[in-house]
């Protein structure tokens, strides 16, 4: 798989991710408005538990399946690749059942004794069936990703999110009117289960239609030694367990965060309801915006794993370095402007999205926005390390960063005038430390270099210019147009400014655009309007 195919795979998943995040915004923002920080806080307690169990049952398995399938298909052992999929399907079926039962059985203990938020009981319980469907989805997605076909994953993600949003909002509003905020949060949670079932049906249909091409008829399979089911499971677990442990670090920290933040806020005088509201502003409102850039960087990380894995199998260091540089550069070009934009317009954005929320949630977003740059870089570097067969390295690095986060969060959240913002500062430090360690690990493993001019100076110049323009535009417009319209216009002008700066500084080159769909036409248009220099 060459660099252009990697970028096309990332483009497909990234495009699906953008659609998903737009739909997610239509989910979280109305929930924030109708349920408020308190209701979102109950929902986030459930989502925190769900994400933690997802990390153990799902997170590492698609990557492991993708890597093993990719290696089998590289040697044209299509039957062997398909057996890996079938084995993973039954493995995930069992994990899905066990995980769902754990949530159902442990819910009461967790909300009463761990989080001290008993009103979150129904929101946590409603997440249980979602884990079952998403486990089965992971087996299909890993198989298709291993064949370098990212479209089925993208389609299933869009279907899953669409159904989740529609059902989740409908149930939340219905139950808010008929019962109370606890059940409304549970209705929002249950949307994940219905969405997971819909996504599973969609990708299973695609699999059924394309099964003939996945295991081509007439290809000689007898030359390959068939792996036993035990061997396949052992190989899957060998790769996935370190990845799952790494993926579980942040959900675990988020669970501890929930525990620490809710308790520490109550220790310094906030009521349980007020503490839940502040926690909702941090995890359900500000974090929603922080996670938006991951749409692209997660797609980059997923796409780069099989590419680097194949290159590592051939000991092709040039291809590894080329794709590592592309992944890091693309992630930086996404994360940097997002961080600057969220920081410069933190209060206007939160006021636009959650106008009735008391206090100043924009301050929480301001502190948390700096984490975006490091988080997006962590994801792309983790994809490279996973492709190199070093999935344990980012696990250790993230665990080290998470250790710093716990200490910082505990100390700062207990200071009354800092309160919940202390958890945001802890998150920034965690991601920064993990990013630096991942970067050093990739450089040590590959010898890859990242030029200061192309990977730092040019992107920073573009981002800072954008930030200055955004501030000036907003301040000039807000006296006349009000906050909402001024914020939207400032964001639009900022995005255009950033794009123009990337082209004029040659941060984005013709080679980068050429691998995109209709790349030649894009280059021709940009050259014609003099945004891109002629060759």
TrEMBL record:
PANTHER family: LIPID II FLIPPASE MURJ, PST FAMILY PREDICTED COLANIC ACID TRANSPORTER. GO terms for cellular component: plasma membrane. Coiled coil: none annotated. This is Stage V sporulation protein B. Keywords: Cell membrane, Membrane, Transmembrane, Transmembrane helix. The chain crosses the membrane at residues 7-29, 49-69, 89-109, 121-140, 161-177, 183-207, 236-256, 289-309, 330-354, 366-388, 395-418, 424-443, 455-474, 480-503. InterPro entries: PG_synth_SpoVB, Poly_Biosynth_Transport, Polysacc_synth. Its main location: membrane. It is found in: Cell membrane. It comes from Serpentinicella alkaliphila. It is a multi-pass membrane protein.
